[in-house]
From TrEMBL:
<dbReference type="GO" id="GO:0030288">
    <property type="term" value="C:outer membrane-bounded periplasmic space"/>
</dbReference>
<dbReference type="GO" id="GO:0009279">
    <property type="term" value="C:cell outer membrane"/>
</dbReference>
<keyword id="KW-0574">Periplasm</keyword>
<dbReference type="GO" id="GO:0015920">
    <property type="term" value="P:lipopolysaccharide transport"/>
</dbReference>
<dbReference type="InterPro" id="IPR014340">
    <property type="entry name" value="LptA"/>
</dbReference>
<dbReference type="Pfam" id="PF03968">
    <property type="entry name" value="LptD_N"/>
</dbReference>
<dbReference type="GO" id="GO:0001530">
    <property type="term" value="F:lipopolysaccharide binding"/>
</dbReference>
<keyword id="KW-0732">Signal</keyword>
<keyword id="KW-0813">Transport</keyword>
<dbReference type="GO" id="GO:0017089">
    <property type="term" value="F:glycolipid transfer activity"/>
</dbReference>
<dbReference type="InterPro" id="IPR052037">
    <property type="entry name" value="LPS_export_LptA"/>
</dbReference>
<protein>
    <submittedName>
        <fullName>Lipopolysaccharide transport periplasmic protein LptA</fullName>
    </submittedName>
</protein>
<feature type="domain" description="Organic solvent tolerance-like N-terminal">
    <location>
        <begin position="47"/>
        <end position="159"/>
    </location>
</feature>
<dbReference type="InterPro" id="IPR005653">
    <property type="entry name" value="OstA-like_N"/>
</dbReference>
Length: 179
């Protein structure tokens, strides 16, 4: 038995690697990755909501009520989205504003092709360690494959993901290997 288990281990790891890379693609603000965003080739972001409130001095824009944000193939739906930015005059476009953080709350749903994700909250953090954190019963699916945990963190520049079960909970991964 131990021998068979060791023989199948590389196959199981190989099946999981594309799934973890998929997480980075789904939750990045633009699926082509950080390099494309820095090169300026990313498509525009469109946000629709019932209400928008911008506070220039605080560097904050709040969207509430039936929020739908799209960028390329990526679509985000939620009750509320808060965008925090800082003035960076060296940054081209967007009036010299650089996004520092985006907090999306209330029935968060993300869609991109056959990939979906659901959570109570999603947070994008820019800067040194660029990452997306899904928390509150987070689930990511592609086709029949699924990862579920209390919290899923995707480190965008590293193409690395960490799923956590939370207090008393466990991470559940369901992968259907390709034949």
């Amino acid at each position: 038995m131990p021998r068979r288990r060791l023989r199948n281990r590389p196959r199981r790891i190989a099946a999981a690697v594309p799934w973890l890379l998929l997480l980075a693609a789904v939750f990045g603000p633009y699926p082509a990755g950080a390099a494309a965003r820095r090169a300026g080739s990313a498509p525009p972001i469109r946000i629709q909501s019932d209400r928008m409130e911008a506070t220039e001095g605080a560097g904050r824009v709040l969207f509430t009520g039936h929020v739908v944000a799209t960028r390329g193939e990526l679509r985000i739906e939620a009750d509320r989205m808060e965008v925090f930015y800082s003035a960076d005059k060296s940054e081209p476009g967007a009036g010299g504003r650089r996004i520092r953080r985006i907090l999306v709350t209330g029935g968060v749903r993300l869609f991109q092709g056959e990939r979906t994700a659901r959570a109570r909250e999603a947070e994008y953090l820019a800067g040194g360690e660029e990452r997306v954190v899904l928390s509150g019963n987070a689930t990511v699916t592609q086709g029949q494959n699924r990862i579920r945990g209390q919290r899923i963190t995707v480190y965008l520049d590293e193409e690395r993901s960490v799923a956590e079960g939370g207090p008393g909970g466990r991470v559940e991964t369901l992968v259907y290997p390709e034949e």
